[in-house]
Amino acid sequence: MSRDAYLQDRYNITEEQYNDLLRRQDGKCYCCGQSDDSLKEIKKRLVVDHSHVSGYVRALLCPFCNSIFGKIAENPNNNLGPEQYILNLLKYVLKHNMEHEASVIKEGKERYKDRGIGIR
Predict the structure, then answer these.
(1) How do residues 20-53 score in pLDDT, each as one tens digit?
(2) pLDDT tens-digit series, residues 91-110
(3) 49 and 96, same structural domain?
(4) Domain containing residue 6
């Protein structure tokens, strides 16, 4: 099966539409920015992210981001919906990262205060 036939059969888009989407994304994963060219080195390509319910094509993602989003979007235990889950996850990461950074800075200040080294 040709690539064009595969894209039409699986996602209802042509290879030309895929390439147009690739150009609009500057040849990179919509989420993380990994380039399609770097994926070709390991015999992979950006994949078509789409709704399994409606078939709507959202963007091109690297296989890693597509896998993560698929696990979030299609998790039967996620009662919040993917958007709210991602917002909650982002809040969680930012909160805990900021708490960690604050403790590291405090620890650094304590460790170096007697050496005349200032950490702001």
Answers:
(1) 999 999 999 999 999 998 888 888 899 999 888 8
(2) 888 887 777 666 766 666 66
(3) no
(4) 1-74
**Residue 64 clears pLDDT 70, i.e. is over it:** yes
Distance CA 51, CA 73 (A): 9
CA distance linking residue 12 with residue 10, whole number of Å = 6
Cα–Cα separations (whole angstroms), residue 33 to 19, 28, 39, 62, 87: 16, 5, 11, 8, 20
The secondary structure element, H or E, covering residue 49 is: strand 47-50
pLDDT at 93: 80
CATH number at residue 59: 3.40.1800.10
The domain boundary, picked from 58, 74, 90, lies at 74
Instruction: State whether 102 and 47 are in the same domain.
Output: no
Report d(CA 20, CA 54) in Å as an integer: 21
Alpha helices in the chain (DSSP H): 3-11, 15-24, 36-40, 63-73, 82-112
Q: Are residues 43 and 93 in the same domain?
A: no
Q: Name the domain count of the chain.
A: 2
